[in-house]
Structures are given as structure tokens and as C-alpha cells.
Batch of 3 targets.
Target 1
Amino acid sequence: MGVQLDTQEEQLAEILERLYDEYPDATISLNFSTRHELLIAVMLSAQCTDERVNKETEHLFEKYQSVSDFAEADVDELAEDLNSITYYNNKAKWINSACQTIIEEHDGEVPDTMSELTDLTGVGRKTANVVLQHGHDVVEGIVVDTHVQRLSRRLGLTEEKTPQKIETDLMSFVDEDDWQWLTHLFISHGRATCTARNPDCDDCVLEDICPSSKVDNEIDLASGEAWG
């Protein structure tokens, strides 16, 4: 119990097979209807729950209905409209600036390349990957959010610590066809069972192959610290 399989490839294949069965309908949980709404929702989701973002964007996207609306918005007013979101002042500035760039340099259309997206204010590789995958049907990498970061370390798939290094490591042995699914499955499992503070190892479909399982192991490989 609680012992990973011999190779990364074997470990990954077993993890994905079990999680596919557990979460057959896993998908992005942010609500959006256009590419710019997707971009803004993902920008807002940094350090914030998708549930909170969806609640906020329900009225936000009624008030600001186009890229131009966000580009021309008063930043202080936009920040006030986002005040239940973490870091809302910074996010208001980033959204306003990003939308201005989209108007000025991309004819009002959300760009479809990693380099152009990450050139936008407030857009890192994780956000760009989500927009590419769900806005343009382009899978260029693996979205490494906090859940993917935590689970990939707990499950012994990587020893890297930063999102970009974890992404590079995972991409070296995860089949490209699984890049998008891995993210959805890990997020679903991270929310339902393998939570940050108190994972439910006793009821986890991966417990017997997890080298971090509290049932048999003393160390949480995600943090490198002993289980509390």
C-alpha cells in the first residue's frame, strides 16, 4: 500500500486510468461564453477559487460586454466591481492593460499563440495554456495550477517545485493527447479528495500507489514536510 509503480510512465498510466473512471466528465469549471471572457476569468482565478470567480463574473460580464468595455473602463471602478476577488486592485489594472493591448495590437481578438498571450499584462504560461486549450483548441502545454503542482509531487511524478519546471518535466513523459486531461483530472481529484491540508487518503482511488499516502508514509511529498 502507498507504493508507486516502478517507472514514471507506469505510474502515470495507472493514475490516469483510475482518474478517468472516477471523473469521466472532468472539464474546466470557469463560466465563459467568449474568448475574452475566458481570458479574464482565468486571470481572476489566480489565488482565488473558481466558484468565487464564477459568482463575480456573472454580473461583471453583464456590465462589461466586450474587450473595448474592459479596455476603456475606469480602473478604480473596475477594481470596485472585483472587490470580492483576491488582489482585485492589481487584477483590475492587468485586465485593463491586457485588453488595451488586444485592441491596439490584435484588432480586438484574443491572440492564439503562447508568446502573444504571455506578452499581455498579467498573463503567465498557466493562463495562456488555459486560453489556448479552451478558447482556441490549441494544446501547447500542461496547465500547472496549485492542484496539478500538489498532486504531481505527491504522486511521485516529479520532484520539481515550480510550475514551469513541473510542466516541462511532465511534458517529457506524458503523452500529448493526455496533457489537457491530466489537468482536468488532477484538479477534480485535488478538490474532491487530495486536498492541500487534509487529504482523504482512506477513500482515495490512488492510495495504494501514492508514495505520500498518510496511511503508510510519513512525508507529504508536495511540501516535503511530515504529515501533521
Target 2
Amino acid sequence: MKFRNLAIAMISLAMMQAGWSLPAAAATRAAASGSEGTATKTVKKSSKRSVSAPAKKSVKKRVSRKAAAHHHQARRVKVSLRHDAAAHDAAVNSAPLQLDAAGLPHLRSTAFLVMNQNTGHVILEKKSDSVLPIASITKLMTAMVVLDGGQSLAEEITISEGDIDTLKGTGSRLSLGTRLSREEMLHLALMSSENRAASSLARHYPGGEAAFVAAMNVKARMIGLTDTHFSDPTGLTPANVSSPHDLARMVSAASTYPLIREFSTTSERYVQIGSRVHRFGNTNSLVRSPDWEIGVQKTGYIREAGRCLVMQAWLMSQPVIFVLMDSEGRYSRTADAVRIKKWLEAAGPQRLAVATGKENI
């Protein structure tokens, strides 16, 4: 067998020197019948040159593609967030102003009231005596009671198990054990509607949450809220109820507190919680709009209340109170506010000074 292989190799060499070649099958047999060790070494060397190197390049390409995919995904998330914000603003600002036969705007809120705060004239209203759940509008009263209590705003208070929402199951970035100043908790409760912050403020009130809720109801009576009742400091329970008339009075009272005006209209805030810094944004996109001058505001939502919004906003140098309750749709409450603003501005200052026949609040 060795002699045959040697003969074939010699013939092959002679033919190559003469410019000829063996048939493919014979060449294959010659290669196949060579030394296994040599063949193995050749394959290994060949693998290093033609397999291993491209494999490394392929791995690099895969890693590179994976990194690019992550980068692209991150960009997509950022773009998506910007797109969502832009879509929200576009949807709100482009809210069509449709008027009924009486020349009043069509709104998607079930109950509402618009009032000139200076004169008490009701400019626009529907079901303004209806008693409805108010969700996180509650936190305006929570803030007034905290500030009336006179406790140190610099004192740190802690989030504990008693602040966890077991009724609606809402989450929070204020984890158990989070310590923030009373002022910071108040800021987050008003700006970002942080339920755990509002709950913690009530628990750290003299006498605890029960005494705090009692103080909320006393305050309600003191400022003339006859349709209003509070059962908790967050608004998560539908037992917190009021009417558009009462809420207009409550917004007017809240607007006399400088800190409530400031905290409720801050567009965003960065807060150090543990080792991380968290961004908290305002739940009302209108505070970021250059078209609005908002003095105080609060949003609210639970299923039983729908989407709610109360504001004091300055229009044509007049403080106007907006109360929008039980709006349907994601953007409906802010879109209704935009519609009302367009309607008022279209008629000029005279509309703000004329009552609609309703008694002054």
C-alpha cells in the first residue's frame, strides 16, 4: 500500500511538472490515503487560518450587533418616550373646539365648573352640585392640613408598611424605609401624586392618620365645603367625595398657600433615594406648556372617579378656577381645559366678567 501511494505521488509530481494533473477522483484518493497525522495537522492548520479566525470575527460581529441592538433599543425607548410626550401634547393642544346651540363648548367631563376667582362668577358649569369621588384631588386638602399643623418641614419622616397601598395595589418608587424631609414628601405628594408620601405625612401627624383625617374634615367645614367628606389622605378610596362647587372653594383656599402653589406646579424634581437619584414628573402636562400660567393644580384618577383635574390658571390677567370631574379618555381632562381656554379667549375679557345666572360661590 505504501509503495502504491509512493508511486501515485511520484506520477502526480511528474505530471504537474509537465503541466498535467490527475483526475479529481484519483487526487482525492491520493489525499485520502495519506498519513492521518499529516492530514490532521493540515486540517488543524487550515482550521486556524480559515475557520478559527473567521469565527472570532463572527463573534465580534455578533457582540457588535448585540451592542448595536441594545443601543438601538435604548434609542427607540427614548424616542418612544419623546414621541409619547409629543403625541400627548399634540392631542391636547389640537383638541377641537366644538360649540353647542347655545355657543358653549362640548366637553368630555361628566361634571365641571369654571369660575372667575376674583368675582366668584360661574362662567361655565354642568352638574356642579353632583357629589362624586375626587381621587387624588384629596391631596390639596392633605397639604393644607400638613401646613396648618405647623410641624417642622425639615424633619425627616419614613415610609413604612402602613403607607403601602393595599386597596388599589398602586406602586411607588418610595420603597420601605425611605427617609425624606416632610417638605420633600409634601412636594412629591402634590407634584407627582405620590400616595406613600401623602400617607406618611398623615401617619406622622400628632395622633396619627385618624387624627389627620379628622382634621381634614374639620378644615373642609371651616372653608365652607358642605358636599365634601374625607376618609383617607391619599384619595385612593372612593369614599373621598366632593362636588365641583366645593372643589372650586377648595382650590381657592389652597391657592393662598405659597408652598402649595410652588410644589403643585413644579414640572419635575430629582430626588436622592438611597444610592440612586430618581426623577419625578408632574402629573399635569399643562404645567410645562408656555401657553398656560398655572397658580395651583392637582390631578386625580381612580376607576370610580374617572380622570379629574382642578386648577387655578391666569387668563387675560384674571384668576380662573377649573374643576373637571369624571373625564373619559386618557387626555380628556387636559383637552377639556384647553377647549375651555380657547373658548374664553375667543370671546375676550368680557366673558370672564359676565356671570351665567348662577349664584356667586
Target 3
Amino acid sequence: MLNVGAGAGSYEPADRYVLAIEPSAVMRAQRPEGGGVAVRAFAEALPFDDGAFDAAMAVATVHQWADLAKGLAELRRAARGPVAVLLFDGPALDRFWLKAYAPELIAAEQRRYPALDAVAAGLGGRVEVQDVPIPIDCTDGFTEAFYARPERLLEADVRRAQSSWGFVPDGAEARFVRTLSDDLASGRWDERYGDWRERPTYEGSLRLIVSRPG
């Protein structure tokens, strides 16, 4: 299996051989010992023959590619079987309570995330799009992972791991921390959104697109 934009390898299956593509030396250095081989390359120019892999995957990465269409075409070219892309659906972020506290962040994420139709068209073949529920104890660090734990978003380390904060105007992050802190302390947040703490899952913006050869 080919994993493109693999990062530190957090999402790779452990029951099969995976070859990872990751252009960042920092991320490659964070891969665990015993993990699959990681190659420095870019999604838009995969150094492999056509159909070299049984399958390919790309998790939470396509919004960072320089040329989305070229990267998707390369994924499809390199895999003779299914291609799975996990990504975020920007318009669905409007349902998240965070928009009331950090509209600039939601807008920044929506600008970065590609349209689902564009990804499906870029992959071609027989395409399925599935909603992926987010569990209440999700260990990933994207914003919606904390839908039931608003206090975690006040932690500087948590926000530092969310790249979209780097795209908001000056002062927006400080205002967010101040406003959310005040509302949690006063109980106002729980009056408005307390039921979110009880949701075992949240069907937010996370989507899985699977393309099979047509």
C-alpha cells in the first residue's frame, strides 16, 4: 500500500506493508521505529510505475498539496486497486459550535479544504463518499475532535498543533481564548452547547472518499 502525505505515519495500517511518501524531513524523523519505509517525494510527482501498488491512501493531507488535480491523478495512476482519501468538508464546519467563538478559524479552514466534488472528479473511477463520525474520545488533534471537550481548545499546545490558527488575523486567537474562557467559567457555554458533551459521536466535516478503478 502507498500512503501519500504520510506525516509521522499515525494512520497507517499495521497488518500490511506500507510505503510512505512524506516531503518533510521533520515528519519523517517522527515515524516510529519499525515503521514502513518513508520516501521524500511529493504527491504531484510520485516516483513509481503505473499500478505499482495494490492500493493507496491519503489522510488529512490533500488540502496541503500544491496542485490538487495533479496529486489526485498521481494517486490513481500509482494504484491498481482502491484509493482512499480522508478529508474535511468545508461547508459542514458551519454546524460546529466553534464558529460562534472563532469564525475566522472556521473561514480559514473552509478556504483551505477542497470541494468534495473536485476530489471525486480528480480520482475518477467508481467513487463513494462516506460520512465519518467523530468519536467523543477522538485522540487526533483537529478542531472537531474536541467537540465535547471545549476546555482542551484553551490549551496552547492543542491550538499550536492546528495549523489553521496560523491563518487567522492578529488578535483573533487571543479573543477566542478570552471569550471561551469567560463563557466556560460563567456556565454560558454549557447553557448553549452543554448537550454536545453527551454526544458519543459527532457527524461533522470528516469524509472518506474511495475511488475504485472504473
